[in-house]
Structures are given as structure tokens and as C-alpha cells.
Fold this protein.
Amino acid sequence: MHLLIMGPPGAGKGTQAGRIGAHFAVPAISTGDMFRAMRGLDTPLAKQVQEIMAAGAYVPNEVTNQVVTERLLSDDCAKGFLLDGYPRTLQQVDYLDGVLDEGGRAIDAVISLAVNSDELVSRLIKRGSSAGREDDTPEAIRTRQQVYVDQTAPLLEVYRDRGLLVEVDGLGEVDEVTERLFAALDQRAGSGSALVGGAS
Ligand code: AMP
């Protein structure tokens, strides 16, 4: 099972990714979490990544691709994975295609969590005060949303054209969204796609 989850900042990707990963018994891999884990490291690269993230910009493709490639080589990815927040640029899409091709693997579905932008800003401001994320300041939020629109939203069309996109309304309670999401994935499985029932 090889899944991607996409959506604008604040759409709730991380929360839903954990649930989907558990359901299909595959690791939910968040590039944002991996970059945040570099926070304590005293290397020039770690510092550069922290500065980029705090500003709400994207980490360079070469760095991101490298981090993901190494992670996908881990044993726990042998049966699949759910990538949360990767790919985010067209270059990353191409790169991921190459990595998967080489390993004889293919993406089964791309989940798109859609939430309107007013709701997103209020969610992010709330999260900034509760989770202490330094990129949840109003200025960084604006940058992240713009970068998403410019660089990541076009990816939805790429995956739609490939017949992989599963669109889910991300508005509402977390449990409601999870239900919607599994219903959409089930429907896709029922329509003859490669998706099959999960582990739980
Ligand atoms: P997230 O936790 O997914 O919202 O990601 C937080 C931040 O990590 C983003 O705003 C970027 O600075 C960086 N990041 C995460 N994933 C990527 C990616 N695929 N490409 C570039 N930067 C990324």
C-alpha cells in the first residue's frame, strides 16, 4: 500500500495520516516531522532547514528528496507507506516516480484533504499557541499558504490526471473527517482500484 496525503497547511494532514497509517499497517512518514526532528542538531544544514521552516518556505528539493529516499529504504517501508507532506513540488513528484519505479512500486492513491482558507487560518493560529510551532505565526502562515497555492496545488491535477486522486472534505470534527476518508478509500477499492481493506 503506497499512499500520499496532501492538503493546504492546517488541513489536518498529520492527524489523519496517523490514523490511515495505523489502519493499513504502514508507517505514516511526515517530512515536516523529520525536519522538525533536526531542530537540536548543530550542523549548517540543520540550521538552514530551521530558518527555512520558520519563514514558511520550502526546504530545497535536493535536501528533501534525500531525506525521503533514505527513509523509504527502512525495513518498515517494505510493505508500503503513507507520505504526509511529500511530494510538494513537481520536481519532487518526478523524483518520487523515479524512486518508486526503481523499486518496482507504484502509488495506489493520493488523498487530498480540502478545507477553505478562513477555517485554515483560525486552525493554524490555534495550533501555534497550543503546539508551539514556530511556523504558525500569522506571517509564516501566509507564506506557507501562498507557497502551497503556487507550488503544491498544481500537483493535485497531476494525480487527478493519473486517476489517483481521492478528494475528501477536511472540514468538521477529526472523527468525522476520518470516517469520510475511509468511506472514500473504500469506495475507491470497491470501484476496482488496487486498494484493499486495511489491517484493522
Ligand atoms: P508540515 O509539517 O508538513 O506542515 O511541514 C512543515 C515545513 O517543513 C514546511 O513548511 C516546509 O518548510 C518543510 N517541508 C515539509 N515537507 C516538505 C517538502 N516536501 N518539501 C519542502 N519542504 C518541506
The chain has one domain: 2-116+164-190.
